[in-house]
Amino acid sequence: MSAKQPRALATRAKILQEATRLFTLKGFHDTKLEEILLTAGITSGAFFHHFRSKEDLGFAVMDWYLEQRRHELAEIDQALRPAPSDDPLEPVFRWLDVTQERFRRRAERHEAGCIFGNLGTALSDTHDGFRQRLAAAFDQMALDFKSRLDAAAQRSGPAPPPDTMALARYIVAVIEGSIILARAHQDPRFMARHFQFLKDYLRQAFPGMKEQMRT
Fold first, then answer.
1. Which contacts qualify for 181-185: CB closer than 8 Å, 24 or more apart?
2. Taking Cα atoms as reference points, which of 53, 49, 47, 45 lies closest to residue 18?
3. Which CATH architecture has domain 1-57?
4. pLDDT at 209
5. Which of 11, 39, 44, 114 is deepest in the core (most CB within 10 A)?
6. Where in the chain is the domain with CATH 1.10.357.10?
7. Rounded to whole angstroms, how far apart are CA atoms 58 and 86?
8. Contacts of 103 (CB under 8 A, 6+ apart)
């Protein structure tokens, strides 16, 4: 059993990797199960050992992609050494820079799409289970920003703080929209431009911080 387990885990990872690539490239409906089996180099028996159906695979892919994304961002965050700063918004801006760097690296590998955006477009109106999972995934992405926005809000002075969860979801919307536009225009610089606008907007969203930065 112990000898088989590493092979089983490797097979499962290969299926998830290939399914993620194909779902991102072609969409959920246009990717046939046979195509996943072929590119992963496995039999249907091996597939059904790990997943009950294509739908079950789709749910697993979302969980797997979210975990892979988290690891990639953490590695980039460690590699990018920021200059010391007293700016309360610097952790938010840093996470935007980390997100942008991940997109740049994925674009170099021709992996610039976001599977959540692709699945959301195809399935949110037709499959409530996927819709709920996608909403939760987008909110998980937003929470990475919310924790940093909360910390900034605590230092923003006497002005009423913004709704940090709503603001975090807006940031995710900018990220996802930038990915779509960058792919449509074949220009990864779209994200950098939009993030600069976003940073300017975030300054305006914390009015008490402007006075603080002047002192």
1. 182/103, 182/107, 182/112, 183/112, 183/113
2. 47
3. Orthogonal Bundle (1.10)
4. 62
5. 114
6. 82-214
7. 43
8. 112, 179, 182, 188, 191
79-137 pLDDT, tens per residue? 987 777 888 999 999 999 999 999 999 888 887 678 888 888 888 888 999 999 999 99
Residue 142 tokens read as: 């937003």
Residue in the structure block whose two tokens are 């449509």: 184
pTM confidence score: 0.87
What's the CA gap between 180 and 151, in Å, rounded? 30
Give the pLDDT score at 215: 47
For range 34-55, the mean pLDDT = 94
Specify the CATH number of the domain 82-214.
1.10.357.10
Token representation of residue 184: 């449509």
Q: String of b and e for 166-192 (b: at least 16 CB within 10 Å)?
A: ebbbbbbebbbebbeebbeeeebebbb
Residue 208, pLDDT above cutoff 80? no
Positions of CATH 1.10.10.60 in the chain: 1-57
